[in-house]
Specification:
Length: about 350
C-alpha cells in the first residue's frame, strides 16, 4: 500500500540525516556530488555498519523493538521467519512518479542510510528503482526489498491464483532490470473479495517462494478474518508483515493485538497522515520533541516503534529522508506514550 500524497510533511514521514543518527556516515560518504555515486554508497554502507545503534530502541519488552538487533545502517532489524538478514524497522516506500524520479530518490534514500525498500506495483516505477539498486554498489545482502501484487478484483480461488501468479511474474521481470533475481518479500496490496479468493492469491505466493524467488510473504490491509483465511490453509507459509494505516492519529483498539496474536508485524503505510497538520496533535508532539531534541515527525514515528510496529515512509527531500531515520536514539517515557495515544480519543 502506498502512502497518501504528502503536503508540508503532513502525510508521509521524513528522516534526519544518518549523520545525526549516531554520526553514522562521514561527510564524504554523504556528499551527493562525489565523482562516483557507486563508490560513495558502498563506502557509506561500510562506514555506517561500523557504528552500532545499540540502545536505539529503549528495550521495551512489549514492542517490536525488543527483538531488534542493532544495526547502524537503516535502523535496527527484527527477525522474521524465513528472512536471512532481518527486517529493518524503517522502510522507504516509493510513490507514484516516473522511473527517472524513482531512480534518483532511491539513490538518495540509500545515501541517507535506508536499507528496507517497498517498491509497489501500484507506483509503476519498479524498473527505475531496480536500476538504482544496481547502480548503487550496495551489497545485495544488506538490502531488504519488497515487491507487491494487486489481484484483489479476481473472484474465486482459481482466478485469484492466476492473476496473482501473473503479478509475481511482473515483479520478477521489473526487478530484473537491476539484476535482482530474488526478493526478500512479496506483498498482497489488498485481500481478495472472499476467503476462496484470498486462498488463491496465497497459493500463487507460495509457489513463488517454492521457486526460490522470494524469502517471505506479506499482506496489506488485512483484518483478522482475512488473515485467518490464509492461516487455515494446510501447511501454510505464514504472512510475516501486515501493512496497515497506523499512527498517533489512527490506531483503533486491537489493531496491533490481532496481528501480534498471529505472529505478524504491523508496518504503518501512513505513519504521519493527519498528524502533523492537526492543530491539536502538533503542539503536543512539538512539546514532547523539545524534551528530546526531536521534531514532531520524529516523535510520531518513535511512538509507532515503541507501540510495537514498524513504518514505511516516503519523501522527495534528502533532509526529510534523513530525519525519519533519526528515531532510534531516544525513548519516549510511559507518560509521553500515553499522552500521544490519547490524542486520537480526544
Amino acid at each position: 500500500m502506498m502512502t497518501p500524497p504528502r503536503s508540508a510533511r503532513a502525510c508521509a514521514v521524513s528522516v534526519a540525516t544518518i549523520i545525526a543518527v549516531f554520526a553514522f556516515c562521514c561527510p564524504t560518504a554523504l556528499a551527493y556530488t562525489q565523482p562516483s555515486r557507486r563508490s560513495v554508497l558502498a563506502s557509506a554502507s561500510k562506514s555506517a555498519a561500523a557504528a552500532a545503534a545499540a540502545a536505539a530502541l529503549g528495550g521495551n519488552p512489549n514492542s517490536a523493538s525488543a527483538a531488534a538487533s542493532a544495526t547502524a545502517v537503516g535502523g535496527p532489524r527484527v527477525p522474521l521467519e524465513g528472512s536471512t538478514h532481518g527486517f529493518p524497522l524503517a522502510s522507504f516506500g516509493l510513490q507514484v512518479y516516473d522511473d527517472d524520479t524513482a531512480y534518483r530518490l532511491t539513490l538518495t534514500a540509500l545515501e541517507c542510510g535506508y536499507r528496507n525498500f517497498f517498491a509497489s506495483v501500484l507506483a509503476g516505477n519498479q524498473k527505475g528503482f531496480a536500476k538504482a539498486i544496481k547502480a548503487s554498489g550496495i551489497p545485495r545482502d544488506e538490502l531488504y526489498i519488497c515487491g507487491t501484487v494487486l489481484s484483489n478484483r479476481a473472484r474465486g480461488e482459481e482466478q485469484a491464483f492466476l492473476k496473482t501468479k501473473q503479478g509475481c511474474q511482473e515483479n520478477t521481470n521489473a526487478f530484473a532490470y537491476g539484476d535482482i533475481v530474488k526478493l526478500d518479500q512479496i506483498m498482497l496490496d489488498y485481500p481478495g473479495g472472499d476467503a476462496d479468493s484470498i486462498r488463491g492469491q496465497w497459493r500463487a505466493f507460495e509457489e513463488m517462494k517454492k521457486e526460490g524467488l522470494v524469502d517471505t510473504l506479506a499482506v496489506s490491509n488485512f483484518n483478522a478474518r482475512q488473515l485467518d483465511a490464509i492461516l487455515s490453509m494446510p501447511s501454510v507459509t505464514k504472512p510475516v508483515v501486515n501493512q496497515l494505516p497506523f499512527s498517533v492519529a489512527y490506531h483503533p483498539p486491537g489493531i496491533l493485538d490481532y496481528n501480534k496474536e498471529r505472529d505478524v508485524l504491523v508496518q504503518s503505510w501512513s505513519p504521519l497522515s493527519r498528524v502533523l497538520t492537526n492543530p491539536t496533535y502538533r503542539p503536543v508532539l512539538a512539546s514532547i520533541g523539545n524534551e528530546h531534541g526531536k521534531t514532531p515527525a520524529q516523535v510520531g514515528l518513535r511512538w509507532i516503534i515503541q507501540s510495537g510496529a514498524s513504518f514505511c515512509t516516503q519523501s522527495k527531500s534528502k533532509d526529510h529522508f534523513s530525519e525519519d531515520l533519526r528515531v532510534f536514539d531516544f525513548e519516549l517515557s510511559a507518560e509521553e506514550m500515553n499522552k500521544l495515544s490519547q490524542l486520537a480519543a480526544a
